[in-house]
Every structure is written in C-alpha cells, then in structure tokens.
C-alpha cells in the first residue's frame, strides 16, 4: 500500500513472467528521440500485468522500448526490443526478439521492420505464444527466448510468429480505447519548463573557474531538447565504492534536488545511476555543490569506471565469485579522471 501511494509496486518483479518494461532514461527530455516512448511502456506494462496466458513462461521475460537514434535502452539485449519508427504519418515499431546477456549472450533478431502501433499488442501476443509453446522447460539455462530463436533459426522463428499472428481471430484482437491511450500520453506530458536563455552566465563562469565542475559538466550532462536545460546523471560509481549503491542520506539529497531543481523527476538508468532529466543550466552550479557535499559528484558517466557490477557471492547464493572486489580493483587501475576521458566511452559489466 505504501508503494502504491507513490505510484510504485513490486508486481511481477520475479518469477517466469514478463517482469519489467524499460526505456531510455532520458526519454521525454532528449533531443534525439522521435517521440516519448514512456506511454507505450506503460501500455505494455498494463497489458502484461496479470496476463493469465503468460504468468508461467519457460523463463523470465523483459521488454525494452526506445525512440531515440542512440539506443540507451539496450533493446537488442532484451527478450523483446522495440524501436519506435514512423512511416509517413503512421507510428509503428521495429521489433527485435531474442537478445540477452549472461553465459550465452545474444543480440536480438530483427523479426519485423514495422508493426503499426494499433497492432503492437496483438503482435506481442503472437511472439509470447510462440515462446510459451516452444520454449524449453527442461533446462533453465536454455529456457530464455534467445535460445529458442537461436535453435529454431531466425527464419523459422519469424515464420511461426507470423503464422500465430495471422491465426488470431477478430474477437481476440486487442482494441485499445483511444481515451485510454490519450490518458496515458497526458500522464507523461513534459513538465511546464520555465523559459530560459540558451546559455547561462553562472554555468559558464563556474566551468571556467572550477576544473572539477567543468569535467563533471562535460561528462555527466546530457543535452536537453529545450534550450537552457540539461539532463544530469548522478553517478553511483565512486572509485573504490560499491557500484550502484547509495546511502539513505544520499537518496534524501537526490530527492531534495529533484524537488527543488528538477520538477520532481528522478530516473534510474539501466547502468544503475540516477538521472535528473530536467535541470536549468542556471541551477547546475547549485546542484553540483549539493551533489559534491553528498559525495555524489563523480564524473564518470559511461566511462570505464562506470561499471555495472553484480553483487556476486556477497549477496547471491547462485553466484560463483565475488565480483564487487574485482570491480573495485579495476576502478583503482583507471582512477585517474584524465586517463578515463582519454580512453573515452567504454562499458564494463561484471557478473559473479
């Protein structure tokens, strides 16, 4: 009940079901997106929650949606990855299936280049039915849809999906009410951002005065689609720390910053950092000072020390090794911020 009061829940967060639907952490704020993908994430979430046909799949299932040129949602390493496209005035989805990481990494296969938005849920049902019918249940290590796509082959998997889709009867089709689509889109409407000049004297002055701030601005800020604003990545990867962890005091600091400067919006990226998506350039000096006071000012977003580190044996009884110390050791080798920037964008994921 407490989670529901703040629009959160823990439904389908484990088990062999459709666990989560994720998107670009800069969605609705970034310049390079065709449209905000979050309304469709919510539509898919509602469709998949308590879906009686897909409550006991062969294995867990995850879906990602993006509408940006740069795929920050990592759709091709998800069970289903959707990329929003347009053909003329028609919005649709490029559908990728069978991505995954772990011990048998696969990039998802392009199954359909364009599914119109009105047909998306029906097409997803066809994919899920093929997986539910043919996915392996005899070996949990071979039960993910990536294995099914690989074993059947791209052509045969695509044929089965199209066959299942064509066999859907009219009464099975999902007629999503336009009023509900409009309601969900309205919920994700962008905040009413105050009009700002495209540049900020205070922001530029502090960059010139403080090299650490200049580095943070260079590395941890993302261009906003509205002039005078930026999206801020709050790195949870201090060198030598626990990757992705934050204390209660640090979380309170981020909450305060969101309330004061970021229109009450906090995002969690799949890289296990936090994002304040709508911050005025004028406010960035104050935001940085508060982050620095809380130990949250590490400037390493998407650099080599910004690692995703599975807890491993420290927390998980399925693990083979302690991955946290390995991550910390790698961070120490590349601790020099100049060295990290010289290397450039580089992602390391460590699993135990």
From TrEMBL:
Entry protein name? Sulfite reductase
| Keyword Metal-binding found | yes
Every copy of the Nitrite/Sulfite reductase ferredoxin-like domain together lies at 222-294
- Keywords on this record? 4Fe-4S, Heme, Iron, Iron-sulfur, Metal-binding, Oxidoreductase
Report which superkingdom the organism of origin falls in.
Answer: Bacteria
For the Nitrite/sulphite reductase 4Fe-4S domain, which residue ranges apply?
Answer: 14-166
Q: List the SUPFAM superfamilies.
A: Nitrite and sulphite reductase 4Fe-4S domain-like, Nitrite/Sulfite reductase N-terminal domain-like
Q: Does the keyword Oxidoreductase apply?
A: yes
Upper lineage is: Bacteria, Pseudomonadati, Pseudomonadota, Alphaproteobacteria, Hyphomonadales
InterPro entries documented for this protein: NIR_SIR_4Fe-4S, NiRdtase/SiRdtase_haem-b_fer, Nit/Sulf_reduc_fer-like_dom_sf, NO2/SO3_Rdtase_4Fe4S_dom, NO2/SO3_Rdtase_4Fe4S_sf
- A GO molecular-function term, please? heme binding
Q: Which Pfam families match?
A: NIR_SIR, NIR_SIR_ferr
Record's signal peptide: none
Family per UniProt? Belongs to the nitrite and sulfite reductase 4Fe-4S domain family.
């Amino acid at each position: 009940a407490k989670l529901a009061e703040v629009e959160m829940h823990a439904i389908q967060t484990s088990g062999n079901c459709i666990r989560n639907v994720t998107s670009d952490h800069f969605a609705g704020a970034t310049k390079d997106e065709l449209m905000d993908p979050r309304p469709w994430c919510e539509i898919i979430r509602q469709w998949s929650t308590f879906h009686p046909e897909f409550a006991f799949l062969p294995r867990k299932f995850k879906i990602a949606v993006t509408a940006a040129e740069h795929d920050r949602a990592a759709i091709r390493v998800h069970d289903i990855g959707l990329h929003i496209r347009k053909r003329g005035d028609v919005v649709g989805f490029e559908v990728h299936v069978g991505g995954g990481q772990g011990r048998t990494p696969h990039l998802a296969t392009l199954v359909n280049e364009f599914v119109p938005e009105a047909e998306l849920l029906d097409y997803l049902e066809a994919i899920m039915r093929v997986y539910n019918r043919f996915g392996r249940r005899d070996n949990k290590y071979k039960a993910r849809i990536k294995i099914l796509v690989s074993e059947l082959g791209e052509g045969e998997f695509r044929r089965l999906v199209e066959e299942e889709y064509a066999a859907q009867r009219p009464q099975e089709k999902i007629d999503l009410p336009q009023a509900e689509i409009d309601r969900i889109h309205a919920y994700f409407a962008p905040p009413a951002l105050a009009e700002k000049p495209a540049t900020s004297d205070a922001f530029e002055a502090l960059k010139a005065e403080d090299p650490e701030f200049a580095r943070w601005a260079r590395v941890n800020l993302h261009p906003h689609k509205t002039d005078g604003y930026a999206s801020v990545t709050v790195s949870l990867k201090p060198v030598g720390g626990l990757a992705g962890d934050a204390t209660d005091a640090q979380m309170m600091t981020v909450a305060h910053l969101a309330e004061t400067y970021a229109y009450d919006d906090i995002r969690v990226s799949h890289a296990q950092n936090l994002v304040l998506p709508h911050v005025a350039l004028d406010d960035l000096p104050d935001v940085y000072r508060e982050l620095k006071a809380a130990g949250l000012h590490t400037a390493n977003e998407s650099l080599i020390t910004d690692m995703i580190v599975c807890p491993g044996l420290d927390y998980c009884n399925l693990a083979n090794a302690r991955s946290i110390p390995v991550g910390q050791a790698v961070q120490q080798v590349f601790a020099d911020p100049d060295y990290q920037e010289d290397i450039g964008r580089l992602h390391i994921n460590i699993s135990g």
